[in-house]
Amino acid sequence: MGSFHSVVIMLEELACIAGFIGGLVDREWWPPLWWVSLITFALAPFLIEGIMVLKGFCNRYKVKLANYSEHIGFQDYVPIVYSTRYNIHAFGLEKLHPFDASKYRRVFEELVSSGTIDPKTMKLHSPSVPTREFLQFVMSNTYLLKLNFTIAVCKAVEMPLPLPGWLLRMRLLEPMQCATQGSVDAACMARIHGWAINLGGGFHHATHCSGGGFCIYPDITFITRYMEEWHGINRFMIVDLDAHQGNGHERDHQDRSKYHILDAYNHRIYPGDELAKGFISTDIDVSRYNSDERYLRKVREELENAMQIFKP
Predict the structure, then answer these.
(1) How many CB atoms lie within 10 A of CB 252?
(2) Backbone phi, then psi, for 128, in 5-degree steps?
(3) What are the chain's domains?
(4) Is the peptide bond before 79 cis (omega within 30 degrees of 0)?
């Protein structure tokens, strides 16, 4: 699915460039070629997404083939999920962005160098880019359509310079899709081992119908939806310790009878989402704690209280 998208978008962009160049070479044909290029650029994403929606409709029952309730093979792996595809590379352009796009690799290397894991003797699970059915199970078709437009993707990841659509899909969207699959796989592995960690994901500003704050795919929502669908789990506790408010998953998990959200974040910085704040069950303003000891003590106390009250 990912490769199909990338190839079609590349052909679309090449067609547009060819139209403009052809018009410059032959001035007589410039107006019609310009319009053809413009129409191709505007309508191609709708054509691509139309094909994918039709494919998803025809295969709507095949998503059940990804039923993780059987945990096929997961019991053989160490409960640490990681793939080299998590790391975002765009020919060095990623270094111009404040987001550390290679931190996943460094975390993995630190775990190896410290002796916590040994890839030679331990079997580590490495997720692949998920299917269209996987994405469509949670995300709206309108949002998936928007992700075919370069401007929408660049806005979500706060990138001021638009890049070619095929490059964004291959070097940005597919790694994030892979990390999203990894979050769901880690949740399934935790059902076997009692715990599991995905070294990527945590896209807590994304919802099922929107993205922002360098978050495209709502992997937290994917976890809760898949665990509810295939394991019958209907009480979830989400503990968010990022410095920023996790407004994406908060908007997706508004039912306090099913979800208890503990969010420890700086109230004075992005995103300042007051609507999403109303869905937080345990709200901790970290700016009030000026030492690691005070912060950790507060988080521990609030977490213990939340576990006793909510019983996830």
Answers:
(1) 22
(2) -110, 175
(3) 1-61 (no CATH), 70-232 (3.40.800.20), 234-312 (no CATH)
(4) no
pLDDT tens profile 275-305: 999 999 999 999 999 899 999 999 999 999 9
Active site residue 249: no
Q: What is the mean pLDDT of the chain?
A: 84
Position 58 scores a pLDDT of 60
Which residues of the chain form beta strands (DSSP E)? 78-81, 124-125, 197-198, 236-240, 259-265, 282-285
Q: How far apart are CA 4 and CA 170, in angstroms?
A: 10
Task: Give the three-state DSSP class for 137.
Answer: coil
* Active-site residue identified among 5, 125, 204, 205: 205
Residue 177 pLDDT more than 80? yes
CA–CA separation, 79 and 61 (whole Å): 29
pTM over 0.90: no
Other beta carbons less than 10 A from residue 160's beta carbon: 8
Rounded distance, CA 130 to CA 235, Å? 26
Q: Where are the alpha helices (DSSP H) in 59-96?
A: none
Q: For 229-268, what is each residue's pLDDT tens digit? A: 888 899 999 999 999 999 999 999 999 999 999 999 999 9
Contacts of 101 (CB under 8 A, 6+ apart): 87, 88, 89, 94
The token pair at 178 is 């892979």
Q: Which residue has the tokens 């994304």?
A: 206
